[in-house]
Amino acid sequence: MRKYGSTSREQLTDAVFTIAGTKGLDAASIREVAAAAEVSIGAVQHHFTSKDELYAFAFEQLTARVRARMGDIDPDAPLADRLTTALSQLLPLDAEREHEARVMVSFAARAATSDTLAEIQRRTLSGIRRELEEQLAAADLPNPSTRAALLLAAVDGLALDAVSAGIYSPDDLTAALSLQVRSLVTRN
Amino acid sequence: MRKYGSTSREQLTDAVFTIAGTKGLDAASIREVAAAAEVSIGAVQHHFTSKDELYAFAFEQLTARVRARMGDIDPDAPLADRLTTALSQLLPLDAEREHEARVMVSFAARAATSDTLAEIQRRTLSGIRRELEEQLAAADLPNPSTRAALLLAAVDGLALDAVSAGIYSPDDLTAALSLQVRSLVTRN
Fold first, then answer.
1. Which residues on chain A are in Cβ contact (under 8 Å) with B141?
2. Residue A178 burial by CB count (10 A; 0-12/13-18/19+): exposed, middle or buried?
3. What ipTM was reported for this prediction?
4. Which of B110, B143, B175 minimises the CB distance to A179?
5. Which of A4, A46, A125, A153 is at a distance of 20 to 30 A from B88, taking alpha carbons?
6. Is the pLDDT at A33 greater than 60, yes or no?
7. Sign, Cα dihedral of B88, B60, A115, A103
8. pTM for the structure as a whole
9. In terms of C-beta density within 10 A (0-12 exposed, 13-18 middle, 19 or more buried), how is residue B133 classed?
10. What is the pLDDT of residues B64-99, one digit of tens each?
11. Which of B122, B125, B115 is nearest to B156 (CA)?
């Protein structure tokens, strides 16, 4: 017998992430999500009236999880350490975060052609960038807004290049983040 | 009557790019590509035995076009100018390159779950990175390989963030690229 009443929205988003990280987001149809979560199609439809609604909820969950990790930083650490610790949350440095990066990339790509997902992405990236900018401005660095955009872009690009081309080891990524932060907390 | 003999592979890849840039790569089925190119499904199948083969050919065409533009640089210009000119080819600075960036992102996301596309992506990114590294090494900069990875990641990440979240104007992107190059051609 299929589960129904016990199905939570979080169980279904976990199924979306599993499929998106292995086969890509386009493989995460209502039917496939139901199968992966071992529930009926009706149970999915009980929580989400459309695939777009399911994707939007899943993307919100994912970005909230990443931002919570990024915010959990010692405020008394030196600036470069704070930035490095926060930004390393976006890099595929272990198996779990590599899967997460694959899921992130598939949602970001879908956001390029979906207004709903683009709005979530806009809110997420603007929020991260603003937090980075505040820390850079507090250290009196020039052009804190451009520096913040570059810190964010570098980790987003490293993650994209790592999961799409497999050209970087965790050590490569750590060394790259360290040099990026060092370059941008310097006045130039 | 539908065209057949006159259909070229390039016509079909143009149709793939049009669909991928507006609706995403998953919308580029053989049926949709045939419709967009105004040819029969049989005409598409005459050139490509599968969707994977069509996507691989299209991705090769796209990366070859971008790399040709990146290679067309005055070798006597100063290092920072050469790097900026080459890397700006990867940024969505006008309507045409914004469309191209959307297509690139959708192929890169698909490469995260497709070995064939990942191999093309690996060859492309490794090639670009090696060329950047050679220029940085010729200028005696330390860690030229990490610097090259960061230059590439920054433009890939800026393009991803721009097309997925719409948070950057062409002026923002140009200012960011300029600061990234300036930061990384400095010894630090």
1. none
2. middle
3. 0.94
4. B143
5. A125
6. yes
7. negative
8. 0.94
9. buried
10. 999 999 988 888 999 999 999 999 999 999 999 999
11. B125
Q: Token match 């987003």: residue?
A: A156
SS3 label, residue B3? strand
The CA R_g of chain A, rounded to the nearest whole Å, is: 18
Buried b (16+ CB within 10 A) or exposed e, A101-132: bbbbbbbbbbbbbbeebbebbbebbeebbebb
Amino acid present at B52: D
Distances (CA, A) of A67 to A55, A71, A81: 18, 6, 17
Q: Please tell me which residue of chain A has the smallest CA distance to B123.
A: A165
Q: What is the mean pLDDT of residues A170-181?
A: 98
- What pLDDT sits at residue A187? 76
User: Nearest-CA distance from A9 to chain B in Å?
Assistant: 25
Q: Quote the Cα angle for B67-B159-A139, to 5°.
A: 125
Mind telling me how many Å the CA of A143 is from chain B's nearest CA?
9
Buried b (16+ CB within 10 A) or exposed e, A12-30: bbbbbbbbbbeebbbebee
